[in-house]
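Lab meeting, item 3. Inverse folding demo.
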């Protein structure tokens, strides 16, 4: 089975994404605009990992079509007149990898799991921006995996789903204070999956999409840490008993990205048989999805998505698994700006 997933990618989402209503959830609209920002300074790649600390995003590792990588970069979207800028930081000291997960907790960044071309990994590393240094932390006490998702809530990190030779939905909590991993008794509900997307809105985390045994996954789940429970949300497919889902024809996907802007989530990129160019907005207050402006750049898988300084970004990726083409562009999504199709 390993050979099937030799080019596995993690779509963070790591942790990261405006509103809908019944009357508009199935209607394509031109609201929202994609803008090109400063290209990533490192080599083009896919399957990278991202996390956010304060007003800065961090992106690194990944696969350049030939080699797995260990360089890491930070992105400040406020410089260069708002186009953003990249600065290289200390290299990731662990095994070069793709398909890892990342999350930011208490002013530190964490990278865990992934695939080195031969092995599924379970190690965990912490980045301290004040010293520009990495420290190895406790490994996940389970088999290595890649293609998982991660998020942070209330000072703790969480990892779920992925692939270790089998599809997974176990649910792990990491406490950075004690440097301990704990297997949560309540695993993600519904389907096992890999290549899902995750995002956090206020104090709730969401896991959506992915693939299980070759089929896209439609069930959509939210985790409430105050009750330590997973809650099923409306599935992301057309349901004849729910008229407002008539337009939900291309939300399902694997290897997409998610980000959050103003307590509203967005998903983009990814594939469902072929690559998708649709952008969808999720409103947690109504549990409804609304289609927004399609991607105005090359469709892709293996990208990263993140939110920083109240702005949402998509970067990197590849046209397909195993492709020798990798991307190094960065795009910002502006949800309240009418589409002017002037992205360059």
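The presenter then showed the designed sequence:
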């Amino acid at each position: 089975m390993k050979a099937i997933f030799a080019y596995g990618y993690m779509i963070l989402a790591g942790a990261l994404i405006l509103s809908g209503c019944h009357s508009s959830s199935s209607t394509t609209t031109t609201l929202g605009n994609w803008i090109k920002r400063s290209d990533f300074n490192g080599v083009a790649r896919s399957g990278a990992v991202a996390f956010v600390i304060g007003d800065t995003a961090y992106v690194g590792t990944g696969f350049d079509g030939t080699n797995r990588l260990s360089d890491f970069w930070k992105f400040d979207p406020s410089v260069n007149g708002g186009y953003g800028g990249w600065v290289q930081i200390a290299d990731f000291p662990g095994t070069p990898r793709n398909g890892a997960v990342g999350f930011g907790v208490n002013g530190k960044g964490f990278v865990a799991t992934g695939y080195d071309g031969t092995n599924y990994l379970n190690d965990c590393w912490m980045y301290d921006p004040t010293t520009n240094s990495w420290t190895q932390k406790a490994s996940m006490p389970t088999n290595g995996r890649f293609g998982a998702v991660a998020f942070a809530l209330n000072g703790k990190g969480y990892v779920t789903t992925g692939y270790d030779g089998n599809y997974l939905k176990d649910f792990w909590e990491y406490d950075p204070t004690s440097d301990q991993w704990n297997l949560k008794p309540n695993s993600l509900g519904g389907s096992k999956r890999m290549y899902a997307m995750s995002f956090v809105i206020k104090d709730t985390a969401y896991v959506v999409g992915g693939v299980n045994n070759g089929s896209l996954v439609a069930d959509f789940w939210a985790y409430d840490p105050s009750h330590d429970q997973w809650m099923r949300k409306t599935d992301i497919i057309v349901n004849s008993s729910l008229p407002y889902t008539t337009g939900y024809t291309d939300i399902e996907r694997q290897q997409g990205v998610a980000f959050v802007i103003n307590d509203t989530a967005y998903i983009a990129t990814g594939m469902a048989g072929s690559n998708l160019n649709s952008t969808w907005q999720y409103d947690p207050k109504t549990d409804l999805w609304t289609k927004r402006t399609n991607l105005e750049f090359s469709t892709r898988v293996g990208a990263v998505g993140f939110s920083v300084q109240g702005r949402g970004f998509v970067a990197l990726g590849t046209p397909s698994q195993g492709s020798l083409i990798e991307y190094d562009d960065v795009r910002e999504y502006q949800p309240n700006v009418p589409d002017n199709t002037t992205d360059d």
